[in-house]
Design goal:
Elements (H helix, E strand, L loop, with lengths): L2 H31 L5 E7 H4 L7 H7 L4 E5 L2 H4 L2 H12 L3 E3 L1 E3 L1 H4 L31 H18 L5 E5 L17 H19 L4 E6 L16 E5 L24 H11 L9 E4 L4 H4 L13 H13 L4 E5 L5 H7 L3 H12 L4
Parallel strand pairs: 1-2, 1-9, 2-3, 4-5, 5-6, 6-7, 7-8, 8-9
This protein binds zinc ion (ZN).
């Protein structure tokens, strides 16, 4: 091997090492700058955000590195100028907006019952009733629900393409001959599969939540989710005094242990993709901790439990986290003067990395 050839090899080798190191450094830089939790947000009521001069949730979210606000607001509120300017400000600040609500009674108006009782659920006594939900075996009912979901989605236009049309809150489902062998989760999925198809006719990127909560905690076993339906896990009856990872822990007076929740989450993640799965937590839900009555109580923020829970959710491969923060409003600010836990919440989510 002559001298020139050896020199050439050394130069090529040096360049190769330099390129590899540069690539590794870029990848590492990208990794440490990309938050593990892609969706980081809060679920609020309109009354929580409509007095920004006293409590500015948009600024609070920006400062805390949160990127999504879900605001539950009635249609008449959505017509108001202050609501529209709230949306404009969110847009200008790069915050996503979506809307999460129990919706079947809205999508299938109860006024149809007189003419079409077969669209509605059958109770355990074999009687059609219009109290909640619908009969998912009724093609016509599904058609009406899907059409109305499409209409509502067009009005709201969530900026992250995510839609939330949950079953009526904790209410029973259909017991007719065709439905009674289907669990509430399976019944919900039949409805969701129909809705997502309708939503995707308008927006091919549309996504629809399957809420895993209360009577839909167990994974569906008979119905397969259409593409675009994502898991939304909401451990409503857990204890927030203990991390979810403590399997034996449970809230006073509740049947479910944290172990039950972890098992249900694992089973659901065998049915739904983990990449799109989202958690709906209650770490900052002053409305829940105040029994939904005012004056509200001061939040017992437990940072250790929250951070431990993030580890748990990350271990399942979940990258999307929202928490209720309802009743943290102008009155809360006036009474307690401190919402620094929002910063800790956002920073915990933003800084989390999987090592
Ligand atoms: Zn039925």
């Amino acid at each position: 091997m002559n001298k020139t050839f050896r020199k050439t090899l050394v130069v090529i080798g040096t360049i190769a090492i330099f390129v590899a190191l540069k690539f590794a450094a870029q990848e590492y830089w990208k990794y440490i700058n990309t938050p593990f939790f892609q969706t980081r947000g809060v679920v609020l009521f309109w009354d929580d955000v409509n007095k920004p001069e006293k409590l500015d949730w948009i600024k609070l979210c920006k400062d805390a590195n949160l990127n999504t606000i879900s605001v539950y607001a009635h249609d008449n509120v959505r017509q108001q100028e202050d609501y529209k300017s709230f949306l404009e400000r969110c847009k200008a600040e790069g915050l996503h907006i979506d809307y999460e609500e129990h919706a079947i009674s809205i999508l299938l108006p109860r006024t149809h019952f007189a003419e079409h009782p077969e669209w509605f659920r059958m109770d355990e006594n074999g009687v059609r009733v219009a109290d909640a939900n619908c009969c998912p075996s009724s093609e016509e009912a599904l058609e009406v629900i899907a059409k109305n979901a499409k209409k509502v989605a067009k009005l709201r236009q969530p900026t992250n393409h995510k839609h939330f049309f949950w079953l009526d809150d904790g209410r029973p489902v259909c017991q007719c001959d065709k439905c009674k062998e289907l669990s509430p989760s399976d019944q919900a999925l039949i409805i969701e599969n129909r809705i997502i198809k309708a939503l995707r006719e308008e927006d091919p990127e549309a996504m629809l939540a399957h809420l895993c909560y209360d009577n839909t905690l167990q994974a569906p076993t008979k119905i397969k989710a259409e593409e675009g339906v994502f898991l939304q896990f909401a451990p409503f009856y857990r204890s927030w005094d203990h991390p979810l990872s403590e399997r034996e822990a449970q809230r006073d007076g509740q049947k479910l242990t944290h172990g039950d929740y972890l098992d249900a989450l694992a089973a659901n993640l065998k049915v739904f993709p983990k990449e799109t799965a989202q958690v709906l937590e209650y770490w900052m839900d002053v409305s829940l901790f105040s029994g939904w009555s005012r004056p509200q109580k001061r939040l017992k923020w437990n940072r250790e439990v929250f951070l431990k829970d993030l580890e748990t959710y990350a271990s399942f491969g979940i990258h999307h986290i929202m928490s209720y923060a309802a009743f943290i409003d102008a009155d809360y600010m006036e009474m307690f003067g401190d919402v620094s836990f929002v910063g800790e919440y956002g920073s915990g989510l933003h800084k989390y990395r999987e090592y």
